[in-house]
Design goal:
Elements lengths: L1 E8 L2 H10 L7 E8 L2 E2 L5 E2 L7 E7 L10 H15 L7 E3 L3 E4 L2 E13 L2 E11 L16 H5 L5 H20 L3 H11 L7 E5 L2 E10 L5 E5 L4 E4 L5 E2 L3
Parallel strand pairs: 1-2
Antiparallel strand pairs: 2-5, 3-4, 5-9, 6-7, 7-8, 8-9, 10-11, 10-14, 11-12, 12-13
Helix pairs in contact: 2-4, 2-5
Length: 243
């Protein structure tokens, strides 16, 4: 896999799209920034990262076997690959829908998966990953961050752990290519933060208790209330409330 390493970028996802727009990428490429000063999250969210301490990168792929209708499968692939990596070092980690990776109640990674569609096909995808590795202090505005170094108490070799991440991504993409999307959807569900656990949520300015029972084909969160009612939410339509 080709790697493009930059000293400083505003966002690796933005750089990936710029290179794609210029026709400078026509195969899988990993784009990484040693210093990402304006990392993007979903919506208006940002990703804060100290220079030279973490993994901030984007994998550009051309997923010919994945239809536009099944694009959420690539979010599943990315989430599971990051979990696979972290579980080489830690115990079980969780996926907080839709785009965060948690160790206990602490956030260790954020994902931003973006697609360019052409009819019913995906022209190309950018799998953006921000993963806290060696950072030990975070801005007070970030509510619950954690890094691998804080958890293990040792400095991690960034180049080695990046290679491990890319291997995990390749293995999960191979699994998708081999027609095992349904199996991975099951893996994803089982790793979901609060899966099948009743907890408080907020939607349309109302609080309610429910449990996660599934994810729709298009990535919406499916909740079951204590009364047995099934509700479906897209991104930013429901808020997780601390129990």
């Amino acid at each position: 896999m080709i790697k493009k390493i930059y000293k400083r970028l505003n966002s690796t996802n933005i750089k990936a799209r710029q290179l794609l727009d210029k026709g400078e990428i026509n195969d899988s490429v990993w784009i990484q920034a040693e210093d990402q000063y304006s990392g993007k999250g979903l919506g208006e969210n940002i990703w804060e990262s100290e220079q030279g301490k973490n993994i901030t990168g984007s994998l550009v792929i051309f997923p010919a076997s994945v239809s536009a209708e099944n694009q959420f499968d690539l979010s599943i692939v990315t989430s599971l690959a990051v979990c696979d990596l972290l579980e080489l070092f830690l115990g079980e980690v969780k996926i907080k829908w839709p785009n965060d990776i948690y160790v206990g109640t602490k956030k260790i990674a954020g994902l931003l998966v973006e697609h360019t569609l052409m009819g019913q096909e995906i022209k190309h995808s950018v799998l953006g990953i921000g993963l806290n590795i060696n950072q030990e202090t975070f801005q007070e505005s970030i509510p619950n961050p954690i890094s691998l170094k804080q958890l293990l108490g040792i400095e991690i070799d960034l180049e080695e752990v990046t290679d491990l991440l890319l291997n995990c991504l390749s293995l999960r993409l191979d699994q998708l290519e081999a027609g095992q999307a349904e199996l991975m959807r099951g893996d994803y569900l089982n790793k979901l933060f609060r899966y099948r656990e009743y907890a408080p949520y907020k939607a349309h300015n109302k609080w309610f208790r429910a449990r996660i029972v599934g994810i729709s084909k298009f990535g919406q969160l499916i909740l079951e209330t204590e009364k047995g009612e099934h509700l479906e939410f897209g991104f930013k339509e429901v808020e997780f409330i601390d129990d």
